């Protein structure tokens, strides 16, 4: 899978999950997610997006807030913070909020 920008090739991204993030190639600065056939699964609306991690969640930033979404695009955690990682959200001073939680633990 390849992500393009206005100038051409931006980066190549290997598939590691059913869907992957992609910068909208029509000049937008928003990220969305596509499937292996190149169809939008989650339309571009995020300022920042990560791949989906083994816990089934992706980190996104929308309107200045970070959170975790599932593969349907639903937020399972939306927390105001300045940092967000693959397996944890942290407060602005670096204290973990959700260290290494699974989807089931996070969605209780």
Can you walk me through this structure?
With 108 residues, the chain is mostly beta strands. The protein has one helix and eleven strands. It has one helix at 103-106, and strands spanning 2-5, 8-12, 19-23, 31-35, 40-46, 48-49, 58-62, 65-69, 75-79, 83-84, 89-90. A four-stranded antiparallel β-sheet has the order 6-7-8-9, with no helix packed on it. A three-stranded antiparallel β-sheet has the order 3-4-5, with no helix packed on it.
Order of strands side by side in the largest beta sheet?
6-7-8-9
Order of helices and strands: EEEEEEEEEEEH
Mean pLDDT: 69
Could you give a short account of the major beta sheet? 4 strands, antiparallel
What is the rounded Rg?
Answer: 14 Å
How much of the sequence is in beta strands? 35-45%
Indicate the percent of residues in helices.
Answer: under 10%
* Count of separate DSSP helical elements: 1
Q: What's the overall geometry?
A: globular
Distance between the termini: 34 Å
- Please indicate the count of domains: 1
**Structure summary, number of beta strands:** 11
Helix/strand-derived category reads mainly beta
Poorly predicted runs of 5 or more residues? 1-5, 7-12
């Amino acid at each position: 899978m390849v992500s393009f920008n206005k100038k051409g090739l931006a980066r190549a991204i290997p598939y590691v999950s059913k869907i992957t993030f992609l910068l909208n190639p029509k000049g937008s600065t928003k990220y969305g997610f596509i499937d292996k056939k190149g169809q939008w699964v989650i339309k571009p609306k995020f300022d920042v997006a990560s791949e989906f991690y083994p816990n089934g969640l992706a980190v996104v930033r929308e309107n200045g807030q970070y959170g975790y979404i599932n593969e349907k695009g639903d937020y399972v955690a939306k927390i105001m913070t300045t940092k967000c990682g693959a397996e944890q959200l942290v407060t602005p001073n670096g204290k973990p909020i959700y260290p290494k939680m699974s989807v089931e633990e996070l969605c209780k």
